[in-house]
Each structure stands twice: as structure tokens, then as C-alpha cells.
Amino acid sequence: MSVGSPAQRDAAATAGLLSIGQVLARLQPDFPQLTSSKLRFLEVQGIVSPQRTASGYRKFSDDDLERLRFALTLQRDHYLPLNVIREHLERADAGEGAGPPVAPPSIHSTGTHYDRAELLAAAGAAPQLLNDAISTGIIDAGRTYTERDAKLLSTLVALDRHGIEPRHVRGLRQTAEREAALVERSMSALLRRTDAASRAKASELAPELAARLDDIRSVFVADAIARLLD
Length: 230
Prior knowledge:
mainly alpha; Multidrug-efflux Transporter Regulator, Chain: A, Domain 2; 4 strands; two-stranded antiparallel sheet; 2 domains
């Protein structure tokens, strides 16, 4: 025989779980654009399946929180579409790994900042390489630099060993900006709307379009290299 009122039993069954507001509070510092609508969209897409109270309120576990963090990180940093992210999670659910996957390190700044000397040391770069990166617009000049700058400079160090200088890759930034403009134009109808559902859909669609453009670029580069090696 049940003890207590329905509300008391509901509270007991969901003790230790997080409300949608608590989930937002934990994730928004890293994902400022996250909204309750986007969380509901991720639920519809099968990324998480939160419990429901008798009153219909969503309640999220710690595993749900980590799955959300995983999905949002891969969307933001690696431009993976949700169907690919969902496949990762389904493999984890099937026992291919212990618990939900851990998201790879973010390529965005997590608060670490470097002065010029620290940046050079972190990237293993010569001062002139940084000067060249700044003069070509690949890295913005400043008193402090972010982890994004460190990652870029480290990559430039690796390319420089093979004779590829910052001036040679300057066009890649211009290409990226053109691709972003293409994505923006394709989503113009969504971006003109101000409702949360449209913004959530746009935040889902943009990485998928970017990933498809990246697929096309990869094929073109592979074709060009194949011709070079023939």
C-alpha cells in the first residue's frame, strides 16, 4: 500500500534528479545560447530521455547531464550532426564503453588566457611565426590570447615544418567566412524568426550544414591530392 500523498511519492521518486532549470544553470556557462526549447528538441531527437513526474515535469539524471554536455560539445566544436552523435550514444548504451561518452576537449576558450610569451611556449612557436600569423589575420593581435589561438599557432608550427607558412593558408579563413555566409543565407527564414523553437532549430541546422560543406571540401582536396600523386 502506498504511503503519502501523490506529490510526496512523486518527490521521493525523483529525489536527486535535476529540473530543466537546474540543467540549464549547469550547462549555460559553457553553452550560453542553450534554452529550454533546445533541451526539449534534444529530447525529441533521442539524445536524452528524462524521467517525468506525475505532473509531467522533466527530471534529468547525472547521466542525462553528461549526455547533453557530450552532444552540445560535439555540435559546437566538431560540427557533428545529431544523428551521428546519437549513434555514438547508442553504441555506449549497447555496452561499447562504460557509461556515456566523454566529449573531446573543446576547441573554444575555457577561460585560460596567455600573454605573448606564454602563447609562444604553449605552442612551441618562434616569435616570427606568431608575427606572421598576426600580420596575415589568422590570429588577432592582443595583449592576451586564448586556447583557440594556442591551437591555431600549434597547427601553424606543424605546417611550417613542411614549408607551409601563414601567408599560404590565409585564404582558408576567407573560405570559411564564405561558407558561413552560405549557411546563414540558407537559414535566413529561420534566423528572421525570434521564437525559441526557431532559434533551437537554427542551432541544430547550422552545424549539420557546416559538416556537409566540410564533406564536400574534403572530397575536393582528396581529388586534388590524388591527381598530384598520379
